Amino acid sequence: SLTVLAIAFELFKCFPHPNGLSSLRVSPDVMCYSSEWNAMLVVGIAAILVYFVFAFSLFSYVLHKAPQRYHDPIFRRTWKFLLVKWRPNCWWFGQVFL
């Protein structure tokens, strides 16, 4: 998912030309703010929303519910990667490291 995010953020890295236009750094043949760039922008924003905003929101929700649900072994097994490093009363540390 980090690779997808890195590619999505590349759409916002443009370099200027002497004629006032700008191109993508990774693909100089694509002019920024052109119709081709706008089409890629839709996909890039969707990737950012899914892989960053949605994932971060989900993990935040899980960590918020962790104190109430920590007694459930299925919950602990499912979200072990967020909870295993810290004591149950320090459930919010996972959010800091996200």
Q: Summarize the biggest pleated sheet.
A: 2 strands, antiparallel
Order of helices and strands: HEEHHHH
**Low-pLDDT residue spans:** none
Q: What topology, given as strand order, has the largest sheet?
A: 1-2
Report the end-to-end length measured between terminal Cα atoms.
Answer: 14 Å
- Tally of helical segments: 5
Q: What's the overall geometry?
A: rod-shaped
Q: How much strand?
A: 5-15%
Question: Can you give a write-up of this model?
Answer:
The protein contains 5 helices and 2 strands; from the N terminus they run αββαααα. The chain is mainly alpha-helical. The protein has a two-stranded antiparallel sheet with strand order 1-2. The protein is rod-shaped.
Please provide a brief summary of the model:
By secondary structure, the protein is mainly alpha-helical. The protein has helices spanning 2-9, 35-69, 73-78, 80-83, 93-97, and strands at residues 14-16, 22-24.
Topology summary:
Elements: H1 2-9, E1 14-16, E2 22-24, H2 35-69, H3 73-78, H4 80-83, H5 93-97
Helix pairs in contact: 1-2
Salient structural properties:
single chain, 98 residues, mainly alpha, two-stranded antiparallel sheet
